[in-house]
Input
Amino acid sequence: MNVLSYVTCVAVLLTSFSSFAEPSSEHSGKASKHSALALSHGVAGSTKVASAAVAVPLVVTGSVALSAGAASVELGEGLSKVASSKASNVNKAQNLELEITEITITAERSPAEAMKKNQ
Amino acid sequence: MRKLIVIFILSLITSHAIAGSNQATESKFKPEEIAAFAKGVEKYAAKQGARAFIISRIGQPQSKLPKGIEFTHTAIAVYSEITLNNGEKAKGYAIHNLYQDAKNSNKSALITDYPVDFFWGAHELKAGIIIPTPELQQKIIDVIASGKNKALHNSKYSLIANPFNNMYQNCTEHTLNIINAAIYQTTDMRQLKANTKAYFAPQRVHVSRFKLSLGSVFADGVTTKDHKGKVKTASFGSIAKYLQSYQLASVPFVFKA
Output
């Protein structure tokens, strides 16, 4: 195989692979996202950017949101109702509009939080 | 001379750092655009009453993706009570991902992030959404809340992992494992893979096997070792078809800015 054919082959390979891969990321840029969000003007509908510490899945039964996995008789009954409910109750649960915070939440720490962690 | 050309080409290949599902740190959109879009996705899902749903994003121009593949990363969003670092509590979606390790492309980790993080590196502000039935949503939540999703994780990463075995895993296969663990109420991987083989039709990857095999020699995180014959992998579209065919989800929705 001559040199030009070889180069062409590998160039085609390279192009094929980059077609369905996402760009690689570096940890060094991580701290900029929180700052960029906090500094940006007019973050739509949000006056606040906050870092998350932990997230617990919520189960919504009727009009009450309960933490999934919490040990209580009332929660157990609620969960079993959701799991085995009949079609009409299922539809009600599905159509219940859920509350969403206006805060922009990110997994990243703010620069101040990152400094505390690194001390 | 030929050796010099090979070295030059290899240096080009490694500099392109072939990667699959990643936590993005750079964005082509303004922060406020991403924040508004991410909040829009959350509110759309919340309006449907979705307590758990499959969510996807696109990290490359659609024109560059192989035929049949519309999204490049898939995960599960779960409606949650989120405790912020200042102690405040808020309600929203936490997203449970399998991300490729930034320093070792052959490995992955399970990472929880939030919609603005998820869409930070998107090429287009476009979200794929599949909302399972309420019963399946509850079972998916149980798998994640109980930590069983971790038992379903295989950290050996391949961008084009075969969902019919557990040799390697990508984000979409892990998502499918969680769904099937919820359906079949088991984390027994042999059973899950047998059921996947019986009922799930993966997406054919329309790139020649020769290219994939040769490319895997140079690129980390890509292998064909787990495939026999045509290369097929799990995708957002194939998961949507799977759930719809068994009446376990409604028609998928594409949310755009």
Chain B has one domain: 19-256.
